[in-house]
Amino acid sequence: MIRRWVLGAVVLAGACIIPDRGIQFEGGPANPGAVRIVEPTPVPAEWSEWCLNRDINEEVDGGTSAFCPAVRETRAGGLIDGTFCICPEGQRDAQAPALWTIYAEDPDLDGDDPDDTLYGVLRLDPDPASEQPNATVAFENYLEACAAGRRAPVEFVTVPVADADDGYFTERVVASIARNTAPQWAFEIDDAFSDRIDLCNDNNGVPLEPGLHNLQFMVTDRPFFRAVREGSDVQREQCGVPDVAAGATYAVTNYVFECIDGTLGDNDDCGCEDRE
Length: 276
Description:
Elements: H1 2-15, E1 36-38, H2 45-52, E2 59-60, E3 63-64, E4 78-79, E5 84-86, E6 91-93, E7 100-105, E8 109-110, E9 113-114, E10 119-124, E11 147-148, E12 150-152, E13 156-160, E14 168-172, E15 184-189, E16 211-220, E17 226-228, E18 235-237, E19 250-261, E20 272-274
Parallel strand pairs: 4-19, 5-19
Antiparallel strand pairs: 1-7, 2-3, 6-20, 7-15, 8-9, 10-11, 10-16, 12-15, 13-14, 16-19, 17-18
């Protein structure tokens, strides 16, 4: 009698174990995935060269390039190395950094399509204690402030490069064996009239002060916060303020650079030239 009761209890307990696959809870987070800025993985030069010149499915020395890190032509956050100068009026810095693109990803999906749209903004020397975050929005002539980025396909592509030894290099985003590949967005720091970003002379037409500066890029997966003025229905966008109350996530990367005063024309390190 005791054995029959124990056996029945075991069978009953086993019948109550159900898998949790496919169970969805109502009232969960509306934005479960956080936005992330995608930058090249630091790797030894030999590894990077090997990966960039191998077909994605090629096996060499018993290894496959599917294990190479994802690579895009972009600039990693940190120090922008170089000598950048504030030039006399009517001139520009010929040594200014080249154009670049910032990539960001968000894992949230609506079926096979992205569930979120990513928005970005450039800020100059942001102060966390400032009560006027909009005042730091900068370089709108190079990136439209708080606008949506461009969808960047995640795929294996080969891009021709004139100065490469073999005439090409491989720009690739490889699906990881450990995580799903998230939709990516591109934010192009671009100038319609030049192939360089004149950071020290052209912040919407205004030169910077000499010294160190912090150029911050912020990306978020909701439109930036909008404040309603008292007594008005007009909503004023607070560019650079993530709408965390609406469930937004955000990420930043910082670029540090120095502007040298070359307005007197007596600095041999400066490369000022007349604007075309």
